[in-house]
Design a protein that fits this description.
Layout: E1 19-24, H1 28-32, H2 39-55, E2 60-65, H3 67-71, H4 76-79, E3 88-90, H5 99-108, E4 112-117, H6 120-133, E5 137-141, H7 150-163, E6 166-168, H8 170-178, H9 187-197, H10 199-212
Parallel strand pairs: 1-2, 1-4, 2-3, 4-5, 5-6
Length: 217
């Protein structure tokens, strides 16, 4: 018997209500040694992801390591999207071993977790593999992560993927939350974020709207 297709989204697609976002160690000291992605792109992608999560009201955890004593402040591109939100500072390299972070994960109560941060091979591998072990469905925004070399980042991504982590990108994250241009309540939010932080894609939106009054919907 042939399969009958229906116009419904796949269960593995992310929605604003089905996951929590965990942003880890977007801090000055960590960024100095990050070479798998340039600092401008890293900050831009972190800003895009942060504003997407804030705009779509995705519950988000912001965590730092040794903020006052060593690693410095979290990127303003991240914190400005969540004004007034407390940062959970840790001593552990593995975020999942911090009791305050886990308390917040449990309070949010989502079985899907999306991660991004510095460095991929340490600060992202640790909590993603730990969360997988405890039954969570885990995604990593690959271009909002970085490491000391291309090799370090790529090996970390491969290790996580082999364990069951699902890789995505920053623009993909934004557009997956929107997913239908007929959703008018978040249309301006999505295109606004894309125009500001979406690189050439954002330039294309600006051009089309300015020259032709174009509208994706």
């Amino acid at each position: 018997m042939p399969i009958t297709a229906t116009p419904t989204p796949g269960a593995k697609l992310l929605t604003p209500n089905d996951h929590a976002l965990i942003l880890i160690d977007f801090q000055s000291q960590m960024a100095f040694a990050t070479h798998s992605i340039d600092a401008v792109s890293l900050r831009n992608n972190a800003a895009l992801v942060s504003r997407a999560a804030a705009g779509f009201k995705v519950p988000t955890i912001l965590t730092t390591v040794a903020e006052k004593s060593f690693s410095g402040p979290m990127f303003d591109e991240v914190t400005s999207a969540f004004p007034g939100q407390a940062l959970l500072d840790r001593t552990s390299m593995n975020t999942w071993e911090d009791a305050n972070v886990i308390k917040q994960v449990n309070a949010i109560g989502k079985d899907r977790l999306v991660f991004a941060g510095l460095w991929t091979s340490v600060c992202i591998v640790g909590p993603t593999l730990s969360a997988l072990d405890q039954g969570y469905e885990v995604y990593v925004i690959a271009d909002a992560c970085g490491d000391v070399s291309d090799e370090a980042h790529e090996r970390a991504m491969q290790r996580m993927i082999q364990a069951g982590v699902r890789p995505i990108t920053s623009v993909q994250y934004l557009l997956e939350l929107q997913r239908d241009w007929a959703r008018g309540d978040t249309y301006e939010l999505t295109t606004g974020i894309a125009k500001q932080f979406g690189g050439a894609y954002g330039l294309g939106i600006t051009y089309a709207k300015t020259m032709f009054g174009a509208h994706e919907g």
